[in-house]
Input
Amino acid sequence: MITAYKRISFFGLGYVGLSTALCFANKTFTSIGVDIEEKKVRRIMGGKVPFYEMGLETLLKDCLDKGTFRCTTNPREAVMESDISFVTVGTPSQPNGNINLRYIKLVSRDLGEALKEKSNCYLVVVKSTVLPGTTLNNIKPILEKYSGKKCGHDFGLCFNPEFLREGNAIQDVLNPDRIIIGEYDIKSGDILAEFYRNFYGEKTPPIIRTNIPTAELIKYASNAFLATKISFINTIANICEKTPGVDVTTVAKAIGLDKRIGPHFLNAGLGYGGSCFPKDLKALIPYSKKSGYSPELLETVESVNENQPNKAVQLCKKFLGALKDKKIAILGLAFKPNTDDVREAVSIKIINILLADGAEIVVYDPAAVENAKKIFKERVKYASSMYECLQGADCCIIVTEWEEFKALKPEDLIKHMRTPALIDGRRITDPELFKDRVKYAAIGFGPKIVS
Ligand code: UDX
Output
């Protein structure tokens, strides 16, 4: 008989940690968040989410009011008052592409030290993305060293990847497609499976139980496959652009209806960004090479993605010639809509190239301006609306597909811009409305058929 654990703690209060902790705390469980940043902890305890995620602040306030969630900088307190700890710290890339295990190691030490005093059986669940072998070769030894206890005997250990998307975090936590449990031993896996069945009840998705390295690789394989789909459709888009009369959006819709292909992640654009895909490919490729296999497919996925932002610049030059002193309006800075995250955002690459070419840049984003200011400071101008951004510009590039940009009409460009020209980098405008009224180019939109 497995005890249904209901007291949980989360080490690392980023997107994954805070979103998951709050979804669990809102139903059934009490949850304690731990973070080393005192300012962040104070902010969260004051009811403020330190990043933009729809619905999360309301959830935070509810959970604080109900007393089902609190956070602290004290790992010992969190371990003493919980039965399961989820490790949700970041594993960012180092300049050489290797993942930085610094935070994982610090948390493992903190957990180990706190576990020393724990008398009942405790479960440590690693959610942070780590390469195969890391949990067994790096995390487990630290937990054992600092606790003086034996994994599988005195405490349990699982690797349980998280697949939530930024901007969709709550929905993704509440409705996962599957749960992957990489278990050190059967008892650890039983406890975690029971925990999830307790939370999801009848809505429990398929649970795949496996060993720890397989679960670690599943996370990388998932992200690598999604990145591959994106680079694939961008490759097709590049072919479409050379083919009179062909539009990638129709091609994507048609191939997506084949059940073997599926309709998702076939939106052609300026490439993928964010805190996961670029970092995970950067880590998986050298990992594979080190073990003796060169994953050429993944290297190509990466290089297609690296080239894709250049297309916006090339199209801009096609319209304007030399870019020196030309005013370019950039709509969208976040790596995707509904987030303020600019990590590895395509906008950064494009703006840097345009600035190097001497262009004057005006940007607008509904949420990500503050984060972009940390990167670009005074080097670009910040507009407070889409229309202000267009004012006096020579060319506009849609870089992120925010909902509000979908309202853009040819008249807006004609009214506000010095020379009305649009490059739709995310395929949110209807070419038929724009192409004969302004200079217009869109990713994957082929030239006119000349018969
Ligand atoms: C991703 C994974 O989806 C998630 O499962 C994992 O846990 C973390 O990494 P996220 O980075 O939040 O999530 O964003 P996602 O929605 O997957 O988009 C990633 C990037 O791909 C964005 O830059 C987006 O613009 C781009 N993208 C996505 C495309 O260019 N085309 C598409 O069809 C889909």
The pocket of uridine-5'-diphosphate-xylopyranose is lined by residues 162-166, 223, 226, 230, 265-267, 269, 272-274, 276-277, 335-336 (CB under 6 Å).
